[in-house]
Amino acid sequence: MPPVANISFSVVIPVYNGSATICRAVQSVLQQTWPPLQIIVADDASTDNTIALLQATYGNRITILNTPHNAGSAAARNRGIKAATGTHIAFLDADDEWHPHKLAIVASALAKVPQAQLLFHQYRLYSTPSPAMAVSVVPGQLSFIRLLRGNCIVTSCAVIRAVSLHRFDESMRHTEDYDLWLRMAYNGGVYAIPHTLTILHRPVTSPGGISSNVWAMRKGELTAYTHLLRYNVLFAPLLPFLWVYSLAKHCLRSVGILKRGVSYSSE
Fold this sequence. Notes:
The structure is a single chain. 32% of the residues lie in helices and 18% in strands. It is of the alpha/beta class. The protein has a single domain (9-254), classed as Spore Coat Polysaccharide Biosynthesis Protein SpsA, Chain A, CATH 3.90.550. It is globular, with a radius of gyration of 18 Å.
């Protein structure tokens, strides 16, 4: 699939002590049928050989951003966003990888909804087979109300417009992505396509990942709901219901009654 005019991608990969997986992630970007404009690896003060490995393997094919102290994935992604020169920024976590046609398919979808501030797609776990993909799909808009029900957007599946003024909240160490998606959805610019273009090698909330602390993730969701007041004080009466809803989900998942969903519906 040929590149779409006026659309280019800067890929931002935050990493912390990711020497075991970072090359797989970078390689999946280099193997795209539509090469990105930039590959930016934002290292968050790794203490292993991540940087040396990247420099030895890829040289000037990638841009490495260093930081003297660990500040979290939100800060790492924001540094990557600041250094990006493409029209759109595609996020990829260091332990995930992409389908070879991801950027080409996303570019084709973005051309159909130029107003999109954020476009995302589905994912699969590495242990599950890849589903068939439709040849051409018109992106569907994801409503703010739908997103309030819970985060259905995995960061490695998200692409945002570079001109957007929205950034990750660096004060948050968990669920900072959901906080950002809510802000973007409130402005009506979130779209989805039903293609499965990312492979997760570590399931969401599994041990070892940044989202493995389930209670910390829940507190992050509560914080994201509280941040609704920053852009409309009329959300104040709704907050108690959202907090109760979030805590109820946590309790139900803790006892195994409710499972984490992996799909979405564009409403």
